[in-house]
Design a protein that fits this description.
The complex is a heterotrimer of chains A (280), B (262) and C (369). Chain A has 280 residues and is α/β, with parallel strands linked by helices. The longest helix of chain B has 18 residues. The radius of gyration of chain B is 18 Å and the shape is globular. Helix content of chain B is 36%, strand content 25%. Chain B is an alpha/beta fold and 262 residues long. Chain C is built from 12 helices and 4 strands, in the order H-H-H-H-H-E-H-H-H-E-E-E-H-H-H-H. Chain C has a 4-stranded antiparallel β-sheet. In chain C, strand 2 and strand 3 form a beta hairpin. In chain C, helix 2 crosses helix 4. The chains are: A alpha/beta (280), B alpha/beta (262), C alpha+beta (369). Chains in contact: A-B, A-C. At the A-C interface, helix 3 and strand 11 of A face helix 1, helix 5, helix 11 and helix 12 of C.
């Protein structure tokens, strides 16, 4: 969005008008009251396209204040173009401090990763969600998935996991791995790698999930149990690498694979840029 | 609260009436089904027998009348007075429904093992090995080769799909099974094997069942009692052998007479 | 030695400069004015207003200019701007019966009271590229008959309805009832007809065109006839709280299509023709007709017809009609997905290794025999 469109005073604080923010906050409160339940909300068109994080942006815009410090990451990095674009947007329309440090941030908006640095009470993690409905690829109809959630009829999800084991010998789902929240609702944790799922379980931070195009908000309050679905004899497992990070030596973080020459030589580097820098 | 009073019917209908616009599909149907009984409903197409079955199984709502089911979970319940949640739960645990076309009663896109295991997983089974073993056991009981456990029903013959549908229903040890022309559309020789299988399973599992069919041979083989429907009404009922050997009503007599002698 | 590349900020800034440059193009070529776009590319402006859900020719022309003629991008721009506008309230429903008509035709009768007014249309042109347009030059104005704005043309639909041959239009909103608004609340399924029509009105013309076309080819045919198409201007009235009575605040151009479809009835209920409805800002007959076809298709269940074609599937149609949503999600695939992909790589490699290990073992066992 060209800078010249944002003049002084032309937009409300954080872009959205106060009524819209109130509507979103009401949806957030409802979501927090029923962990994992998808609350429909009247999402607006934003200056960024659907699919680029409008849900996360609307949630952040509704909760951000001048005392906040905002961090925005995409694929774990602060400097990917989309993270840069969103951070610039809020710096302009919300006149708020921004940071690349997970520890210093009060609000962290993220696409597809949870920070490696453990979060603490008082922090809010805002997830960008493309498809909020965890059953969507098994049942395309919203009218039916709504009923399945209401009646706790989750057989179809367990069937898909069984089928994966029957075909591949293991549950082959690697990202957007479905979880059971507070023992009641099956939720999509957004397309984070399953590596990050354990971080959601009883996290001291508040997790908010925004899906702009599908117009749903859901939440996991602090210290809520979040369990990745599995079978007793095929328990949930996270990814692992034989290599360590080439820059900081970490063996505990999610590693990106870089192809460094024409012969296909590979190098592995922490996906979380802030985490990696701190260790060096 | 269990409904295991041996003197109570497992399923009762009183004054059951179902209309489609101006047309009455079934009118004032009364009957009692006793535990361990197989009740046949016969008639030509258009007699209302399938509509009756759908009303009994909670798939259609009648305009008048009551259907009472003696459930293990809640005691005697009015089938159409139940909340949707409870009715859906009953239909996955205490009931079975065998459709004429197996594709309507199976998930064609997942393996046979997943199809059979679904009811178990829906009520909380979480051990893959156990679920798989139970599914394999059931494949065996319905006479499907064990190496077909991971195949999808799209690769099965019509007869195999029907047997799979039966296994998928019976794995949850239902007390009451509804069957809509379970052998319709299948080869005569295939039909015979499935009828044999059903007869055996109904006996060993002590199932109660309502079986809709236009085929009097099927009725003879599987049912204890018979209701004959014509134009939405029951015109005759009684013990199967009696009705078929000594039909009283003119319509029944015509039905029986039109079976080609083999 | 690999060094993590930083510089996303700079790259974005340069990209913005480049696109602004491309948009302007060759500086020796005269810049487009908004008036030129509004006047000479008016149908593009009409479409952007309709799907942008905002009637303002200047804003729509600006969006077309900024988007370099990419209308879906222009629609997005207008919608995003609309988000920032304050809402004063709902207007009084427009009355198209009293439209000052520029064009009005009916396919169901050869002649109708008020006549078939051909008006401005491409329908009777021969699609031969007119090279005289490549040069500029003054064109004389077309002669027009004087417009009798006092005479409202009676609706063909009303004539049929009077005789009981056509079902009455569905009841409008009652006194004090607020209209549902898709721009303020999420789509709730099953949807009411007003919500469906709103969704279709701002839906992508191409999508509706394809679906409408599919019904004509047998995917849910509903035997359509164009009862009436009218294009012209209607006043918009609003009741401000301070005044308590209606005032006219604008005149807008709209295109309206009344479709007459497959009759419904039974043994006891006398058959009547059924309706489909389409409405668009500006002159947009293709959109209005397509919308009316899809509207009627989506009424299949209500009219007890079998509904197994895509155009009759409410969830399918309404969830995918919005091109701003569709464009965003389709194009978001360009965003980095390398973390998700990395997870998949790890798993696929592990699975491949397992299969290869099994095959090697099987080969060894065979060799041993």
């Amino acid at each position: 969005m060209p800078d010249s469109n944002i003049q002084e005073g032309a937009y409300n604080y954080a872009y959205l008008d106060e009524q819209t923010k109130r509507m979103i906050r009401r949806a957030i409160l409802k979501a927090v009251a029923v962990p994992g339940y998808q609350v429909p909300f009247g999402g607006r068109e934003m200056p960024l396209p659907y699919g680029w994080g409008t849900g996360g942006i609307q949630v952040t815009a509704a909760i951000i204040g001048q005392d906040d410090t905002l961090k925005v990451i995409d694929q774990g990095a602060d400097d990917t173009t989309n993270a840069v674009s969103i951070r610039r947007f809020f710096a302009k329309v919300a006149d708020v401090a921004t940071t690349t440090s997970t520890e210093e941030a009060t609000i962290i908006q993220t696409r597809h990763r949870v920070p490696e640095t453990p979060l603490r009470e008082g922090q809010i993690l805002v997830f960008q969600v493309p498809i909020p409905e965890p059953l969507r690829m098994l049942e395309p109809r919203e009218t039916e998935t709504r009923t399945l959630h209401a009646l706790s009829e989750y057989g179809v999800m367990q069937v898909s996991l069984y089928e994966s084991i029957a075909r591949h010998g293991r549950i082959a789902k690697t990202y957007n791995y479905p979880v059971m929240v507070n023992g009641r609702y099956i939720m999509s944790p957004s397309p984070i790698p399953k590596f990050d799922n354990p971080k959601l379980d009883r996290s001291p931070a508040l997790q908010l999930y925004g899906a702009g195009r599908e117009k749903r908000i859901y939440a996991v309050p602090p210290y809520t149990p979040v369990k990745s679905l599995d079978f007793d004899d095929h328990p949930f497992e996270v990814e692992s690498w034989t290599e360590c990070c080439a820059l900081c030596g970490s063996r505990e973080s999610f590693l990106d694979e870089m192809i460094v020459d024409d012969a296909g030589k590979r190098m592995f580097i922490c996906s979380d840029t802030d985490w990696c820098e701190r260790r060096r | 609260m269990s409904g295991s009073l041996l003197s109570a019917p497992i399923l009762s209908a009183r004054g059951l009436t179902k209309r489609f616009g101006g047309r009455i599909a079934c009118r004032d149907i009364d009957f009692d089904l006793w535990p361990g009984e197989v009740l046949g409903v016969v008639g030509e197409s258009g007699s209302g027998k399938t509509t009756l079955l759908n009303c009994l199984a909670g798939r259609m709502t009648p305009e008048a009348g009551a259907i009472t089911y003696d459930s293990a979970a809640y005691g005697p319940v009015d089938v159409h007075g139940l909340s949707e949640a409870r009715r859906r739960l009953l239909s996955r645990t205490e009931w079975g429904f065998v459709n004429q076309d197996a594709r309507d009663g199976l998930r064609m896109g997942v393996s046979a093992g997943a199809n059979i295991g679904e009811r178990l997983m829906a009520v909380g089974a979480r051990h893959y090995g156990d679920i798989r073993r139970t599914a394999a056991d059931w494949l065996d009981r319905v006479e499907i080769e064990p190496d077909r456990l991971d195949d999808r029903p799209t690769t099965y013959s019509g007869g195999m799909r029907q047997r799979l549908q039966i296994a998928r229903n019976l794995v949850s040890k239902p007390r009451l099974v509804f069957m809509d022309e379970p052998t319709g559309g299948l080869d005569v020789s295939v039909q015979a094997r499935i009828l044999d299988l059903l007869r055996g399973l109904v006996g060993t599992l002590n199932l109660s069942a309502v079986l809709v069919t236009h085929d009097l041979g099927v009725a003879r083989l599987l049912t204890h009692r018979l209701m004959v429907m014509q134009g939405g009404r029951v015109v005759e009922d009684g013990l199967t052998d009696q009705v078929l050997d000594d039909p009283q009503h003119a319509y029944t007599q015509m039905l029986v007479a039109s079976i080609l002698p083999v | 030695m690999y060094v993590a590349v930083k510089g996303g900020e700079t790259a974005i800034a340069h990209s913005l400069d480049l696109i602004a440059d491309k948009r302007r193009g060759d500086r020796d070529v005269a810049e487009l004015s908004l008036e030129q776009i509004d006047q000479q590319l008016g149908l593009a402006v009409d479409r952007v207003m309709t799907e942008g859900s905002c009637y303002d020719r200047a804003l729509a022309a600006l969006a077309v200019k900024q988007a370099r003629g990419d209308l879906v991008e222009a629609i997005f721009l207008l919608r995003a701007y609309r988000t920032t506008l304050p809402r004063f309230g709902d207007s009084v429903p427009i009355d198209t019966t009293s439209m000052v008509v520029e064009r009005r035709i009916s396919g169901t009768f050869k002649d109708v009271p008020g006549g078939q007014v051909l008006g401005p249309t491409y329908d009777y042109t021969h699609r031969l590229l007119d090279f005289s347009l490549a040069a500029s030059g003054a064109r004389p104005h077309a002669p027009t008959a004087p417009v009798d704005s006092a005479q409202a043309l009676p609706r063909v639909g009303d004539i049929l309805e009077r005789d009981g041959l056509l079902e009455p239009p569905p009841p409008g909103k009652s006194e004090g009832e607020t209209a549902e608004d898709l721009t303020r609340q999420p789509l709730a399924l099953p949807a009411s007809r007003p919500l469906r029509l709103q969704n279709l009105a701002r839906g992508d013309e191409g999508f509706l065109l394809a679906l409408g076309y599919s019904t004509q080819r047998g995917y849910g045919n509903n035997h359509p006839f164009v009862g009436e198409i009218r294009f012209g201007s209607v006043p918009v009235s609003f009741v401000p709280e301070e005044l308590g009575f209606a005032i006219e605040i604008a005149d807008i151009d709209v295109t309206e299509c009344d479709m007459v479809n497959q009759f419904a009835g039974s043994h006891d209920v006398p058959p009547q023709f059924t309706r489909g409805y389409g409405l668009a800002f500006g002159h947009a007959e293709r959109k209005a007709i397509a919308m009316a076809l899809v509207d009627r298709a989506l009424r299949a269940q209500e009219l007890s017809e079998s509904a197994d074609s895509p155009a009759q599937d409410e969830e399918f149609v309404l969830a995918h009609s919005d091109n701003v949503e569709a464009s965003g999600f389709v194009q978001h695939l360009k965003l980095p997905h390398y973390v998700d992909f990395q997870s998949e790589l790890v798993t696929v490699r592990a699975l491949r290794e397992e299969v290869e290990k099994r095959n090697r073992r099987a080969a060894l066992d065979q060799a041993a025999e």
